[in-house]
Every structure is written in C-alpha cells, then in structure tokens.
UniProtKB/TrEMBL annotation:
InterPro entries: CpG-bd_C, Spp1/CFP1, Zinc_finger_PHD-type_CS, Znf_CXXC, Znf_FYVE_PHD, Znf_PHD, Znf_PHD-finger, Znf_RING/FYVE/PHD. Residues 104-126 are annotated as: Disordered. The lineage of its organism: Eukaryota, Metazoa, Spiralia, Lophotrochozoa, Mollusca. It is found in: Nucleus. This is CXXC-type zinc finger protein 1. One of its GO terms (molecular function) is zinc ion binding. Residues 39-89 form the PHD-type domain.
Length: 483
C-alpha cells in the first residue's frame, strides 16, 4: 500500500464517491456536524431534531414540519419539496406531489370484486370473481398450449410424475412481456413510469443478451468470464501486497513445523534405543546358553509349599502354591485366545514387526496382538532340561549385579516367563512411540496443507482490509493487525 492510498481523501473525492442524492445529504450533514458541533436547523434556528422534519431538495436544509405547516401525513404525498427561500430565488421551482397511479384505478373494480367474492359465498358460487391475468396475449409464449415436459417446472407437475410442489407453469409458456415497463399517460400530459422486474442486460464482458430472471447474467459462462477477468485484474496487486506485508500465520506455522521436527527426531531416537534394548536382550540370552546349571539356586520343595494351596483367579480351581504361576498363565492364555483383535490391513513398520499379523481366512483380518503375547498363533518353545534361567540378578529391586540366574529354567519360579514379559514391555514402549510419531506426521501434513492453501487464489483475494469509513482512514499498523 502506497503513501497516497493512506492519505486522507478530500471533500471532492468523497462527494465523487457518493453520487447518490441520499448519500450526498448524509455526507454534507456529517461535514456540517464536524465543522459545527451545535447544528442549527429550520427557520427557527434551533438544535432540536427530535420532531418530524423535512429537507429541501434544492438547498438540502432541514425544516420542522410545525414551523412550515407540513404534517407527516402530508409529507407522504410530496414527491419533491422546495423551501420558500429556494422558490423565491428560482420561480420555476414548485412543490411536486405524487400522482395517483392509473393502473390502481383500472384494476380497482377487479380487486374489489375479488374481495367481495371472498367475503360473499353467493358471489363465489355464481362465478363472478375476476382473477388478475399475468399474460399479455400477444407473445408466442401466451399462444402455446402444450407443455415442453423438459424444464424443471414441467418435471414438477403430477402429469409428468413430479411432486407438484413448485406449482408453476411451463417456462416456455410464461409470458415474456409481463415484466416489461408499462407507461400510462394521464390526461394532464404527465407520464407515470411504473418499473417492475424488468429484464436487464447481462453483466458479462461483451455480452448483449438479456439477463435471466433473478440473475445478473444470461448464462453461467458469462458469470465465469466476468469473475475470471476480475481475478486477472486484481490478482497481481494482491500478490505484490502479500509479498510486501509479513504474514503472522505463516511464521506461526513455521515455528510449529520446527517443534514437530524436534519431536519426530526425539521419537526416532527413542525407537532406536528400544531396538538396541532388543539386541542387548538377545546377547544376554546367548550368554545364558553357555552357563551351567547351579542346583543350589533352584531351591528345594518344602512341606509348607506342598501343603499350601490357593484358588485360580481365572477358572476358580484349587491349585498348589508352587505351580500356581504356570497354571494361571495357561488359564489366562486359554481364555484370551477366545477373543480376537484384528484389522484388515497388515502392519507396515520399518524393521522387525512387533505384531502377530496372522491372516485369518474365515474372518478375513490380520491378528493385531503382540507377537510375544499372542496365545492363539504363537506357541511357547520347548524348554530343555539343561537350559539355564538366564535372568539378570538385581539388588534393591532395580540395581543389576551383572550376574545371571543359573537355576534350571523349568523349575525357576522367581523368574517365570521373564524373557516373554521383557520383550512385551519393550514392544509396548515401541508401540507408544510409533503412535506418537504417526500423530506428528498427521499434524505436519495438516500444517503443510494449510500453508499451501494460504497462497491460493481465494486466500490472495481475501488478503486485504477494506476501509469503509473515508472520514477516518486506517493507518498501516491497523491494516496489518486486521490481516
């Protein structure tokens, strides 16, 4: 925006913009109000403007109806009013009154007959009611007797299978001269022009056809041509204005993208650490294979262990305390296998997949349980007699000592299924970070789409603050804040 656009317009420019007489009166009244705080009106030169007032169409001065002897009812019949001062300067000026429209007298008897017919049922039965005609009787549409059967009004008719909601006659049978201007000449040689909904010329560039009823254009193509020409005319200045003024939303989106990239990098780093934990677990199991069994770490069964019993929380049967963990694990796996968790899409994750992804041909979906915990499609490996437990020993619950449990894997109750639970814990953590990474990708896609749409044609056309008050023009900071 240049400095000339920001400068205050002069009174001549304001008057040129508001060429309509009503707006001229308002602008000049506003200018007088700005120049003189206490505006005086009428021949009485008072500031009272609460009572009925009428303005002179020549000098545009306002007068009280009481002071000049004009009531509000009389003003309704006045078409042009001139004050005594203007009529004294120009004798050709005189107060003009609204003439009575002749078409009201012409159809007064008809409307009165219709009203009397509506009130009196005897007249309604006798058929004396007269309906107003909407046909001229001269054009070709008035002489057509058959419907086309192709327009929207014909398709609405019952005889063409329509619901009969619009209740309009065929478009080809609608009178073409009904909406034209009609001129009636009075005996006093005064011509009264009555304007109805007259067809106007199409607004399309270079088009000379008449516009459609209720529209500014003769066809949709003319409207599209005019809109294209206006876009081509206004778009270069909008692009220049866009490039000259900074966009706060663009800066906010850039900062949001930087934050999303940092979170994505953090999520990928965590996923790499979890993969490293998988490798460390595999190396730990490989190390345990070369160890020998220590019978002292396995423990011995005492009489208390054999006598004590408890009830399974799944099936409710009474079981021995020493074999309770194994029994409860089998019962839980049995009932868990009766429930299905599936999806029609196969998992596509970089690296080793953590899901079962077993295809069920009957239900036609992939199993979505964790592979290490799926009791339906994953069988537990057989444990040999010479296999060592291999779980790392700890002190104070969390501090690892570096030593491994050398008890037989079949008889070790303290570390039952430790390998499966450790892998499941790592896989659950990986799943959380994959879901967070998927949300970040979706946010990035949404932001990038909004950034690409912001520079579109619609965004450029709307990127402007229109100054509707020429008396108090907006400054550059106000325009940038509103954008």
């Amino acid at each position: 925006m240049t400095d000339s656009d920001l400068s205050a317009p002069s009174q001549e420019e304001i008057a040129h913009r508001f060429n309509i007489p009503e707006r001229k009166v308002k602008v000049q009244t506003l200018m007088k109000t700005l120049n003189d705080e206490e505006q005086k009106y009428c021949i009485c030169q008072s500031t009272d403007c609460t009572s009925f007032m009428i303005a002179c169409d020549k000098c545009e001065e306002w007068y009280h109806g009481v002071c000049i002897g004009v009531t509000q009812l009389d003003a309704k019949s006045i078409k042009h009013y001139y004050c005594d001062a203007c009529r004294g300067k120009d004798p050709s000026l005189s107060i003009k009154y609204k003439t009575k429209k002749p078409w009201k007298d012409k159809f007064k008897s008809d409307s009165s007959d219709v009203d009397r017919t509506a009130r009196d049922p005897r007249l309604r039965e006798s058929g004396k009611a007269k309906k107003s005609s909407r046909r001229c009787g001269d054009c070709t549409a008035c002489h057509k007797k058959e419907d086309c059967g192709r327009c929207d009004y014909c398709k609405d008719m019952k005889k063409f299978g329509g619901p009969n909601k619009m209740r309009q006659k065929c478009r080809l049978r609608q009178c073409a001269n009904f909406y034209k201007k009609k001129k009636y000449k009075q005996e006093s040689s005064d011509t009264v022009e009555i304007e109805d909904d007259t067809p106007t010329q199409c607004y399309g560039p270079g088009c000379i056809e008449c516009a459609r009823p209720g529209s500014k254009y003769c066809s949709d193509d003319c409207g599209l041509k005019l809109s294209k020409s206006r876009i081509y005319e206004m778009l270069p200045s909008r692009i220049q204005q866009w490039q000259s003024s900074p966009c706060a939303a663009e800066e906010n989106n850039k900062r949001a993208l930087e934050s999303i990239r940092r979170k994505q990098l953090e999520a990928k780093t965590r996923l790499g650490d979890l993969d490293q934990r998988h490798k460390e677990l595999d190396s730990l199991l490989e190390r345990a294979k070369h160890l020998k069994i220590d019978p002292d770490q396995g423990g011995t069964e005492t009489e208390d262990d054999l006598e004590l019993s408890l009830y399974c929380v799944t099936c409710g049967s009474e079981i021995n305390q020493r074999g309770a963990l194994r029994h409860m694990e089998k019962c839980f796996a049995k009932f868990e296998s009766q429930t299905s968790f599936g999806s029609i899409y196969k998992t596509r994750i970089e690296g080793n997949s953590m899901f079962c992804d077993f295809w069920n041909p009957q239900q036609k979906f992939y199993c979505k349980r964790l592979k290490v915990l799926c009791p339906e499609h994953t069988k537990e490996p057989k444990i040999g007699q010479d296999e060592v437990c291999g779980c790392s020993l700890v002190t104070n619950v969390f501090d690892e000592t570096g030593e491994l449990c050398r008890a037989p894997k079949r008889k070790c109750v303290k570390h039952f299924c430790w390998e499966k639970l450790r892998r499941a814990e790592i896989d659950m953590e990986r799943l959380r970070w994959w879901m967070a990474l998927d949300d970040l990708f979706e946010k990035e896609r949404t932001i990038r789409m909004s950034m690409s749409n912001r520079m579109g044609v619609l965004g450029l056309m709307l990127h402007q603050s229109v100054d509707h008050d020429p008396m108090t023009p907006m400054t550059t900071p106000q325009i940038r804040d509103s954008n």
